[in-house]
Structures are given as C-alpha cells and as structure tokens.
Design a protein that fits this description.
This protein has one domain (5-133): Transcriptional Co-activator pc4, Chain A (Roll). It has a four-stranded antiparallel beta sheet, covered by helices on one side. It is built from two helices and eight strands, in the order ββββαββββα. By secondary structure, it is of the alpha+beta class. It is globular and about 45 Å long. 26% of the residues are buried. It has helices at 54-67, 117-133, and strands spanning 5-10, 17-28, 31-40, 43-51, 72-75, 82-88, 92-101, 107-116.
Length: 135
C-alpha cells in the first residue's frame, strides 16, 4: 500500500497570500517530501520541497505562537530553500521564504507576508497531526 499523503495550508485573511504543502509524504526518520505552493500577491511558485526537522520545527513554531519570540524554520533537504516564521508587531507572524531551483538556469523566488495568530494556530494543529501520525 502506498504511503498516505497529506495536504495542508497556511491560510491568511488575504486570499492572494497563501502557503500550501501539497501531497506531503513521510519518507522516514523525520523527513518529508511535498510540493510547495506559494501565492504572495502575484508571485507564485509550485515546486518540490523537502524538510527533515519536523519535531524541532513544531517546538519552535509553538513557542513563537505562544510567546511571540524566536523563529521557526523549515529547510529544504535538496536545495538552499527555506520558509521562516518570525514575530511581527500586533501579535502577527511574518512568513518569509526563499525557494530556489537549480537546473540549467537557476531560478528563485523570495516572498514575505504577514498572518495573524489565529491562522498560525490552525497551521500548527495541521502540522502537528501530520507529525503525530508518523511517529
């Protein structure tokens, strides 16, 4: 039986700013592979993305959500890509990312948008469900 794949997204109050993790597949030993979809006010990207710091990221993003201090980062296993969550004024979270693709011609996108605390809490719940299902 093929491994179960999960899809979840970081919703925002602005539909032109979205971050989705599509068909997340658990590879074992805390590593995941998925397709990442970024929509940031006209800048869009769909690309393979992998990360292997699931529980560490979960701890960091929970702490960021609760204390509004520190930062949390998902790092791509195969590239220099990352998605970082940082505190922002008025109990909001700044989401910044750099997605790079190294082919014959290197391409990259940098993006940033702000989300409120309620959106982050829903994201954390979805991410935690995925991690707990794979322990």
């Amino acid at each position: 039986m093929p491994p179960k794949k999960t899809t979840f997204k970081l919703n925002t109050r602005d539909k032109s700013k979205q971050l989705s993790f599509v068909d997340v597949e658990y590879l074992g030993s805390g590593a995941y592979s998925c397709e990442i979809h970024v929509d940031s006010s006209g800048f869009m990207c769909k690309r393979e993305f992998g990360f292997d710091n699931d529980e560490y990221f979960l701890t960091k993003i929970r702490g960021l959500s609760e204390s509004h201090q520190g930062e949390a980062e998902l790092t791509d296993l195969k590239a220099d890509s990352f998605i970082r969550f940082k505190p922002y004024p008025d109990d909001q979270i700044l989401v910044v990312g750099y997605i790079v693709e190294h082919t014959n011609v290197t391409q990259s996108i940098e993006f940033a948008f702000v989300v409120d605390a309620s959106c982050i809490k829903k994201f954390i719940t979805s991410f935690e469900k995925m991690v707990r299902a794979n322990i």
